[in-house]
Amino acid sequence: MALLGGLGLTSCATSGRNGTVDAGSAPVDTSVTGAPGQTDSASPSSSPSASRSPSPSASRSTKASPSRSPSHVPTSKAATPAAESNIASRLRTIPSSTRQLIVVHSSGYGTSVASLETFEKVNGVWRPKFGMMSARIGTKGFSDSHVEGVPTTPTGVYGIGSTMYGVQANPGVKYSYHQLVANDYWDENPSSSTYNSFVHGTNPGGYSEALWQTVPQYNYFAVINYNIPARAATPARGSGIFLHVMGSGGTAGCVSLAQSNLLQVLEWLHPDASPRIVMAPSQNLGRY
């Protein structure tokens, strides 16, 4: 979703979208009346279809990803540590195979100001990884029923896409990495057959983003597998939900972090750990 630069939105929106810049407390999104946020943890984290041209992995950065084993994998039969009381330990819908977890939470539905916490599972117990990070989400905050064109961040539990992207070269992520070039788009046109996926070539139309032109927000980003694969719906359920570099304000649905924090998270994530990201107001994390 392209920038609303003139209005201060940092990503995931175009001038045709609704919503205004907030200073951390946008009006409550009255559309938040649907069912609880989706749990897409079973959604495939594979790259866009190989029939799309080109495949991101075909032009990934020549910088090799580290081959070392993820730091979170225990190397010895240590005694099982006592359980901790933290956000991750209280979640109940996270797949048993998941060993890395990101939790994005806010004080309520009507704010774009949020916090991001990271956890890793050690001998079956969730332990905090990095300190709490300041984040920004959609200018209208969280929504349980996000739709295309409305600057809200969808609640729920989602996987991480198997390819990470960026205008800049691979910083050393453990995922496949595609350094963006001219004519790389994220298709955000609900009428397109490749809706909510990476494409290279002609602009797919609609709200589609020219990824290579969006800086610094798309210096580096990971795809949050919301509505992937896209499900038919009227109105469309939304597209282009990323974890990317923070700009000057709220987004139109993505989650953003300061670049140094984002790189710390992206370089830590490992596909073998089946990472998940949980997004919701703090008072509703109990759903998950």
Describe the structure.
Strand 3 and strand 4 form a beta hairpin. This protein is mainly β. It is built from one helix and 17 strands. It starts with 37 loop residues before the first strand and ends in a 7-residue tail after the last strand. Strands 1, 2, 3, 4, 5, 8, 14, 15, 16 and 17 form a ten-stranded mixed β-sheet that branches.
Measured distance between first and last alpha carbons: 27 Å
User: Main β-sheet: number of strands, strand sense, barrel status?
Assistant: 10 strands, mixed
How many DSSP-defined strands? 17
Q: What proportion of the residues is helical, as a percent range?
A: under 10%
What is Rg?
18 Å
> What portion of the residues fall into strands of 2 or more residues?
15-25%
Give me the strand/helix succession.
Answer: EEEEEEEEEEEEEEEEHE
Q: Look at the helices and sheets and give the structural class.
A: mainly beta
Number of helices: 1
- Give the assembly state of these chains: single chain
Mean pLDDT: 81
Which residues sit in consecutive blocks of at least 5 with pLDDT less than 50?
A: 1-11, 13-35, 41-80
Shape: globular
Feature tags:
3-stranded antiparallel sheet; 288 residues; mainly beta; 24% strand; globular; 10-stranded mixed sheet
